[in-house]
Amino acid sequence: MMIKDILSPFSAWKKVFDKPVVIKDPINDRPGADRYRGFHKNDIETCIGCGTCEDICENEAIDMIPVEGIETKDGDSGLRPSIDYGRCCWCALCVDICTTTSLTLSNAYNWVEEDPEAYRFTPGVDEKPWQNEEKGWKKPEGNYEFYSLNRVSMEHLHPEERSDSFVEMVKGYSKEQAEKEADRCVECGICTATCPAHMGIPEYIKAIRNDDLEEGLRILYDTNPLPEICGRICTHKCETVCSVGHRGDPISIRWLKRYIADQNPSEKYKQILESESLKKNGKKVAIIGSGPAGLSAAYYLALLGYECTIYEKLSQAGGMMRYGIPEYRLPYDQIDKDINYILSLGVKIVYDTTIGKDIMLEQLEKDNDAVFAGTGLHLGRSTRIDGSDHKDVYQSIEMLRKITQGEEVHVAEKIVVIGGGNVAMDITRSLARLQIQKYGKVQIITTSLETEDIMPADVEEVVESREEGATVMPGWAPQHIEIVDGKIKGLHVAQCLSLFDETGNFNPQCNLENTRFFEGDMVVESIGQGMDLSYLSEDIKEQLEMGPRGRIQVNDVFQTSLPWLFLGGDIIQGPDVIHGIANGHIAARGIDRLLSGE
């Protein structure tokens, strides 16, 4: 024993002469420490109602409840956390897990009420004196995280590796990468509500964490029979509302979906997804178009026992997925993998058949119990500016179709593309590849009315177009195409100031004093797509209820005013693959209800 151990107990005697501290009003005169864990606060405008606080609370002290004045919308459940202080232990896990940092703890620790129900309240909604206090417990920035804020990057071919070929540019996740990315998910389900198909996103991500990819595939097929396709080209609206994305990168939901589909070989699909043979109910449904809506409807109707025949105008199935999306984004063997499984369920496809020409729609009605049409948007639209009728002015949809079919297309040394959407970027990048193959260099300019901040194209599409040598010039309105001695010399444009007028109608305004000239030997228009409804006879058209912009009106199950005819996909809603898939699924349920007498 050391001498200080003997003397240290006597050191307390020095306090004997100190003046005692008396707190006359301990409730008001003794505030908590600056970072004390007191009662809850919540910024309800920042909160998105993701429910991670409720999930992590081991004492079940938090309930997510609806709040008057807060509407449910994409990215916001409309719910807010209500705290029961009969259960709360002030561990602050709810604050530490909060994806938006809206939930915090004040340093107020004393609260006297006679009514025990008062100790169950909704922070930020029920007014409390500490709501605006700055002190209290907040998530320590940079100290620790329950989930990584950084997305696991997806490997791509470098521009110099991909710019002269149509080889798929996205490599896909490895097992290690997929599991690491899946670990970032907090399973809030905000994504599911926003997904047009309402896929079980947290559930299939959990299957990746559990290394149960067969279960993941079953979950995908509950709401999406095109996982290989959708895992590559889905517009991933789910990622735009991901709760983790409020503080970091959103979860890479699309690539995780692709990972599940890629790891399940096509020969395993049938044995994984079918527990017993399908029983036929003796009823038939005709489907027009083999795009995402038609394939989705056929899949779910086949599962319900219907005999489905798809009538396809072209020589292969897939619609715009095959004939409008370049192979470097969506390889054709992956399209076939999804389609072949649907065909294995007994679905038939009749190719090279145009409804309204080879077979009349009225005949399909006679031969079947119901008809579903998902014919997509296969017609290009023209700017109708002076010079747009020249032979070297092309439509992007037609050119993409020829490129995907392996047909030879005209490729000039200098090209101008008009348009700012994904299709415009697709034709830009496809023609850039063909320019390199033919001329050894890229000379292509893509211009759009929209400025870059409001261009409809995905940001990565614009970035990758530039990486591959294209020049993207947003914010310019086409005025006329200059033609000299019968040959195109280029496009004259003016600065676009605005797209819509005060009433919200499309009415572009230009500054004609600020103009430019984009040199080119050919022009490609990519300003939108139109629907081809030529398969509808005049008699049938007269019986259909039409809506704005020439769209046919349908009810909540995509049934038209003709009870036997259902329409879905891009001609009704979209354009994108996931809406088409969702439309086909809902229409299949509607057809089943109709034909089963419900």
How would you explain this protein's 3D organization?
The chain has 598 residues and is an alpha/beta fold. The protein has four domains: 28-137, Alpha-Beta Plaits (2-Layer Sandwich); 164-272, Alpha-helical ferredoxin (Fumarate Reductase Iron-sulfur Protein, Chain B, domain 2), CATH 1.10.1060; 280-378 and 541-595, FAD/NAD(P)-binding domain; 379-500 and 507-529, FAD/NAD(P)-binding domain, CATH 3.50.50. The protein is 31% helix and 17% strand. α6 crosses α8, α8 (201-209) runs antiparallel to α9 (213-223) and α10 packs antiparallel against α12 (253-263). The protein is globular and about 110 Å long.
Question: What are the defining features of this structure?
Answer:
598 residues, alpha/beta, Alpha-Beta Plaits, Fumarate Reductase Iron-sulfur Protein, Chain B, domain 2, FAD/NAD(P)-binding domain, 4 domains, 22 helices, globular
Mean pLDDT: 92
Number of strands: 21
What percent of the residues sit in helical stretches (DSSP H or I)? Answer: 25-40%
Which structural class matches the secondary elements? alpha/beta
* Radius of gyration, whole Å: 30 Å
Strand content: 15-25%
Second CATH tier, the architecture of the largest domain: 3-Layer(bba) Sandwich
For the sheet with most strands, the description reads: 5 strands, parallel
Blueprint (SSEs and pairs):
Layout: H1 3-7, H2 26-29, E1 40-42, H3 52-56, E2 62-66, E3 79-84, H4 93-97, E4 103-106, E5 120-121, E6 136-137, H5 159-162, H6 175-182, H7 190-194, H8 201-209, H9 213-223, H10 227-233, H11 237-240, H12 253-263, H13 266-273, E7 284-288, H14 292-303, E8 307-311, H15 320-323, H16 332-344, E9 348-350, H17 361-367, E10 370-373, E11 379-380, E12 393-395, H18 396-404, E13 415-418, H19 422-439, E14 444-448, H20 459-467, E15 471-474, E16 476-484, E17 487-500, E18 506-519, E19 522-525, E20 529-530, H21 538-543, E21 565-567, H22 577-595
Parallel strand pairs: 7-8, 7-10, 8-9, 10-21, 12-19, 13-14, 13-19, 14-15
Antiparallel strand pairs: 1-4, 2-3, 3-5, 4-6, 11-20, 16-17, 17-18
Helix pairs in contact: 6-8, 8-9, 8-12, 9-12, 10-12, 14-22, 18-19, 19-20
